[in-house]
Amino acid sequence: MGGNTVVSEKLKRYSSDNRQLMIMLGVIAGMFIILSLTVNNFCTARNLTNLLQQIAPIAVMSTGATYVLAIGGMDISNPAVMAASAVVGVYFMTTMGGNLVVGALVIVLVASLLGLINGFAIAKLKMVPMVVTLSMMTIGTGLATILSGTRGLPILPASFSNFLNKYAVIVILLVVVAVFDFVLTGTKFGRMLYYIGNNAKTAKISGIDSENLIMFTYTISGFCAGIAGVINTASIATARANMGPQSQILDIISAAVIGGVSLNGGSGRVRDAALGAVLIVGLTNVMNLLGVSDYYTTLVKGGIVIGAMGIASFRGHLAAKKGA
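Structure tokens predicted for Ribose transport system permease protein:
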């Protein structure tokens, strides 16, 4: 009896600590059951791996967004940074005759540099995150447009896409989510980010180097955008300025918010944001299959974000009321 009680208590504690995970898995399971019953061959290995390949760029960029949101920041430049870095990398690999492996590294390094610039402007120059990242979005789009030109960039050798096939992309996705989730929730570095998000002034008084941590966090966001750029580049075997549309930021932030990441900072997990990406991309695919206009799809996504924020706010209000 005693052993059963201990196990029961552990299960209750796990369920309480991972409530958001349980909710997300339940909703995803429900969505997949409905789709398997209504869409022919939906639950085939081929279709599911294709779906994960589509989810990967959004989930990876949502990883970076989770870190930024955890410190109470905001980064709306991810899609543009992804496109700009991808165009620079492909330009290096095709026009300049660069090595494919080095070209992939160039994509990640350029994106990280753009993220670092965001972080420097916000942390050191005390500029407003929304204004800085909006400016970076414009710069990234402009850079990608200039380099890709009107005719676009040449196609990459098939070996690039063959190496970074959908199975490699799925592995990259799982590794990125697992590593960054562990760093955020299981290390001192991650705890300091949460402290900054909860109260930046208190964190600074406590001796936390807030400025450098904020700068590094935006660099991580850029790094994740670069990984997404590599994935997208392999998918289409080239890069274009329009591969990072401004509307994509809604998917990224939606995934994080649906995953329980607070826009006010101080909470959230990469794991749950990635599951949020599964829901968002899955919803988009379903609405496309139903022939629903993109305008209505965007409307639904916006409504989901507002609803998720409302639920989070209500829970926070109840928690504060109980603690009073």
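The chain has one domain: 59-305.
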